[in-house]
Amino acid sequence: MEEQSAPKQDGLLRQDQVEVCERVTYLEKKVRVQEDEIVCLKSAVADILRRLNQVEAEKAQNSILPTKPVFKSSTPHKTTPRTPRRTPLDNVYVTPPTRHSTPPSSAKSRTPIKKWGSMTNSTELNGSHNVRRSVSQTNLLSRSQQKQGSKDPQWNSEEGNLRIYLRGRPVSLYAPSDLSDYSVDKEVTTPDQKLQLEYVFGYRGRDCRSNLYYLNGEVIYFCAGVVVLHNPEEQTQRHYLGHTDDVKCLAIHPDKVRVATGQVAGHDRKDSKKKKEESDKKPHVRIWHSTSLNTLHVIGIGDFDRSVCCLSFSKQDGGAKLCVVDESNEHELFVYDVEKGRKLANTKGSQDPVLAVEFHPSEPNSIIDVGKGHIQFWTLESGKLTKKSGVFDGGTPSSNTGPTKAAEGSYYMYTKVSNIASGSRAVLTTESASLTASSFCLSFQYHMKGLPGTLKVFAGDKTSSLTSIWEKSGVQPNPDQWKNVTIEIPQFNNPVISIEGTRGNSFRGDIAIDDLILKTPSRCCRKWYVIISTS
Q1: Global confidence as pTM
Q2: Residue 34 — φ and ψ, nearest 5°?
Q3: Which of 8, 152, 191, 362 has its CA 20 to 30 A from that of 374?
């Protein structure tokens, strides 16, 4: 009986396991659906709060609208008929520069007269023209004083405008029709009302990417130092004004509520009486709420150089991390904890421009950045970022140099000589491999097109210096074709083989190798691959 009951129990247990697995799978699907519903509810609530805030702001604005000021005057002012509106060009008057006539020099005296300014001291000049120069100096001083006085603000009661000078150019400001008199010297207190930004025209897209998103019924983008939230249905705008200089990049949090924006470095304003703090001038990232427009976090002050070019939130862990790339020479990559604002890791990236950076959608510690001629895969482990560079199946990024495809298969190795100094070397060696004491044959295919440098093969004993046994320099015949070479390597006790590529004087000097084979003389007809490592 026990032997018969055991198979039944096993069958029941198996059936229970299947039912449990099916139940867990069903619950997982249900949780995912509920997560999507929660995100939709968050978006709907954010839209409702935005509309409520907009209605309250409109009510408050209507209740405190300023009335037009009324000025009383004893003498009535007759206004001349003019158009109700004037364009900025109508209000600008440019006075032609006055020409000062120079006194004619005496025909008898050929002594050259030095050029001098209105503030020149007459005692510094000598000769027979002291008296005449003193009179001319007095005239020039009076003219300068008149000219300086004419640049003060002037009220024209006949035309009803105030003329001021901006950078030496006169600008006429027309007064309201009910203003009969205005005193330039009268001191008045500043008004309680302030100007409010209503609409922004323009969009920055010439030097940045990922700069336009659709968020909760609004199109979000940036122009100069303002982040615009445009409602296409109502044709209204809201503006985030937390940045101190031009915004360069934008990212949306997975909760569809928070937004991260990065800015460029600010400029010093020596003319301003109140200087800005040093932190405001440095490039940084601001994380803010898209509904209330309140700043939540300010990240990276003092970490970035020049500006922030791209950034992205993590996806798998709900946006707990933020990766940022700046526009320094090395395009450094940073990873931050969003809630704490703490830097988790940073490392140098690429010397070429970086166009976008993103977290992997299913791996929270994997980051991918792409740019000019490169794609890089980063892994965040124990506070460090490790890189693996992607290899393109095809030609090298630079034009008129390098192969268009691999000699064998889909991959090959090449020296990228862009943005590095002449004479730089790339070395491929067998130092980490344990080779037996024997003679070898090394065969490979190489490609040298454009203005390449030098490709060398070295061999020798591990305990001594290596000797050059093969070398090619400059452009080779039929540069578009791969060339095969076989090199006999002498016998050494501790053999080391090294291939070295040296950059020439041009960025069009990529050197490529492929189909690398190391074999013993007895197996020259067979391929015997050995592990090769870079150093």
Answers
A1: 0.47
A2: -65, -35
A3: 362
